């Protein structure tokens, strides 16, 4: 038998993985990620900030009410109340990690407003570059921490199991070489599934690989049908599209149709700042009818290079100047509310396997995530899980053979492109029973060829089973009750 002085293995270098790794000290942590510098996460692309009730007129209870409303009350209420109560401490912890949040002329934290929020409660760092600022600061802390060993350029493609417990991982480097790493615990912090769709705001690595690995090991899933689509990605050719932050609409930008009419007029009381599922369906409907949708931000005041540097640079690189003309926009797969089912501490149904961040589902987001709650979730849940693992009893690994559970081969490029388009058409902002059934059958046929098809099959099954519309899962079957 071997008692662990084994490391905690954290898979993923986004905010959730970094917060977990930092908070697990002084326990030894091995942080593994595909990118050498950790830059390939969706966290690093996040333009929205972090929601926290910091204004004297605001409260965590009001933040919770908005979170539950956005989530169609499918949320775990206790988790929501805990998340919003922890938000202020999360901001303080991030400041202690050298995250420099934006401040107003009086030196106070600058609070913005985004869709679904009844108050201005979003803190940003570097304007619309908040995610990158968080990842940069936390990565520097992790690389300086004596208890964290960082290893980039590796993919975790298998889990080591013994007597039903996860006891390590198998890695594969860029040359195809495999290595087995025994672990006191394995934490999946691998992000979402957006890159399985033909149009997404996520990076290519957000392809559901961690979710697929957890499912292969027998971990239970939860709420797989709930996928959020961001209504304003820049409508340009490509797979991974540039996001146009919701904060622009909070600052006065308007959504318009081809005739210059207000797109959301009469659709929702909050207009352009309605919950994302409502706005995305409206944008998708106009596009399905052959029209285009435009975001007119020409009235947004202030210094764009300070307030919205990411959007400005991206738009200029694609030949658009948002200060002078309206931008063409499209919905794009953005965030997965579902994932590996976990308890409040990040435990999956498989002993020794934990999940945190977008790959996990603890019920906090319900059927539709409230804007800027995702980085918040990554920080507070990562800190909670890290502290738990730091104080956990060391497991015993027996001197017996281990079982290797593999994610499996990837689909060939041509079939993967077909799958991306299939999910976009059948499992997008609006869904219909026949399309879901046909897509599920195609994925069943493709399943032996690659893990992405098996994962897509699980997603589509969940979408087919929920026959009524709820939150981001919108059915337009004949006679479907809404």
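^ structure tokens above, recovered residues below v
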């Amino acid at each position: 038998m071997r008692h662990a002085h084994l490391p905690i293995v954290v898979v993923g270098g986004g905010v959730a993985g970094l917060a977990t790794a930092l908070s697990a000290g002084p326990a030894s942590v091995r942080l593994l990620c595909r990118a050498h510098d950790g830059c390939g996460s969706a966290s690093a692309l996040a333009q929205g900030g972090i929601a926290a009730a910091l204004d004297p007129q605001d409260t965590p209870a009001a933040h919770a009410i908005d979170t539950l409303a956005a989530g169609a009350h499918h949320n775990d209420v206790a988790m929501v109340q805990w998340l919003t109560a922890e938000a202020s401490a999360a901001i303080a912890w991030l400041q202690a990690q050298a995250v420099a949040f934006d401040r107003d002329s009086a030196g106070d934290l600058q609070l913005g407003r985004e869709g679904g929020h009844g108050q201005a409660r979003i803190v940003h760092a570097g304007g619309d570059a908040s995610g990158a600022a968080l990842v940069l600061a936390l990565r520097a802390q992790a690389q300086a921490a004596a208890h964290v060993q960082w290893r980039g350029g590796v993919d975790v493609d298998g889990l080591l199991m013994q007597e039903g417990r996860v006891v390590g991982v198998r890695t594969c480097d860029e040359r195809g070489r495999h290595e087995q790493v025994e672990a006191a615990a394995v934490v999946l912090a691998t992000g979402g599934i957006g890159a399985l769709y033909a149009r997404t705001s996520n990076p290519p690595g957000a392809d559901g690989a961690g979710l697929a690995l957890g499912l292969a090991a027998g971990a239970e899933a939860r709420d797989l049908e709930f996928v959020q689509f961001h209504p304003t990605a820049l409508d340009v050719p490509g797979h991974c599209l540039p996001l146009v932050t919701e904060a622009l609409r909070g600052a006065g930008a308007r959504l318009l149709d081809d005739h210059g009419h207000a797109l959301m007029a009469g659709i929702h009381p909050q207009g352009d700042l309605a919950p994302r599922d409502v706005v995305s369906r409206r944008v998708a409907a106009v596009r399905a009818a052959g029209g285009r949708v435009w975001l007119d931000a020409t009235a947004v005041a202030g210094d764009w290079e300070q307030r919205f540097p990411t959007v400005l640079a991206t738009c200029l690189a694609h030949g658009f100047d948002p200060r002078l003309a309206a931008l063409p926009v499209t919905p794009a797969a953005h965030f997965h509310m579902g994932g590996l089912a976990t308890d409040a501490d990040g435990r999956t149904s498989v002993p020794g396997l934990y999940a945190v961040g977008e790959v996990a589902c603890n019920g906090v987001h319900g059927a539709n995530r409230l804007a800027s709650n995702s980085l918040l979730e990554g920080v507070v849940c990562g800190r909670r899980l890290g502290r738990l693992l730091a104080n956990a009893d060391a497991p015993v690994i027996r001197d017996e053979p281990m079982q290797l559970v593999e994610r499996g081969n990837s689909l060939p490029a041509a079939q993967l492109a077909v799958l991306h388009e299939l999910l976009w058409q059948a499992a997008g902002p609006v869904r219909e029973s026949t399309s879901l059934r046909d897509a599920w059958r195609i994925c069943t046929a493709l399943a032996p060829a690659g893990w992405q098809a098996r994962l897509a099959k699980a997603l589509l099954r969940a979408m087919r089973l929920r026959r009524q519309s709820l939150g981001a899962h919108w059915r337009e079957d004949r006679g479907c009750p809404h």
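The domain at 2-225+338-403 is CATH 3.50.50.60 (FAD/NAD(P)-binding domain).
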